[in-house]
Design brief:
Helices cover 35% and strands 19% of the residues. The chain is an alpha/beta fold and 203 residues long.
């Protein structure tokens, strides 16, 4: 169904038996606007963290700085299994296993779904003394808004993207959203945090 088409909502509403409600599917531009507003609110929680846009990151990856730049995917294992950004990407656990071997001046870019988790992690890294840390503004959702490629763990191209929850299905045009069932997202985050505390990898 093309965007901006009204589709019937077949849920039952009290007092309106047999009367479906019409719901408009958001356009891609509306998704982009909503994502920008979402990240602006997130960024207030880590004001000292520098952002980098998807376009800026794409340019850096293709330039001389791309060879040394490390991207850190702060999402859960379940989310990363769907897709991730191409290039030198480490999970949070993998990065922390080499953190003492990584120079404090190494360029780092953190990302998650929309930028909240990764922004907070970028702030942690700055407190650890890393001097070139940036958070991907809008994160993987913004990356898809720009139409940039995603890959699977086997480096195969894919249009699938994990958006965490149904309400965050703000992916770019042509990408297929995947999301946790209600409650599973919270459990996945908790498992990831506990695993990080224990120094292991998430299940």
């Amino acid at each position: 169904m093309p965007p901006n088409v009204f589709a019937p909502d077949k849920r039952v509403y009290p007092g309106r038996p047999g009367s479906p409600r019409l719901v408009r599917r958001p356009s891609m531009s509306e998704n982009a606007t909503r994502l920008a507003r979402l990240y602006k609110g997130f960024a207030q929680q880590f004001p000292d963290v520098k952002p980098i846009t998807a376009r800026q990151l794409d340019q850096e990856l293709q330039g001389p700085k791309g060879a040394e730049l490390i991207m850190i995917d702060v999402r859960t294992v379940e989310e990363q299994q769907v897709s991730r950004l191409p290039g030198r990407v480490l999970s949070r656990d993998d990065f922390e296993s080499i953190i003492y071997q990584t120079a404090k001046s190494t360029p780092l870019v953190t990302y998650c779904t929309a930028g909240l988790r990764s922004g907070k992690y970028a702030e942690e890294l700055m407190k650890e003394g890393y001097t070139d840390v940036r958070n991907l503004e809008g994160s993987i959702l913004q990356w898809t808004q720009e139409g940039f490629p995603l890959v699977t763990g086997d480096q195969e191209s894919t249009k699938d993207v994990h958006v965490f929850s149904r309400s965050w299905a703000l992916q770019g045009e042509g990408y297929t959203p995947h999301y946790f069932d209600r409650g599973r997202g919270v459990l996945a985050i908790l498992r990831s945090k506990v695993s990080s505390w224990l120094g292991g990898s998430s299940a």
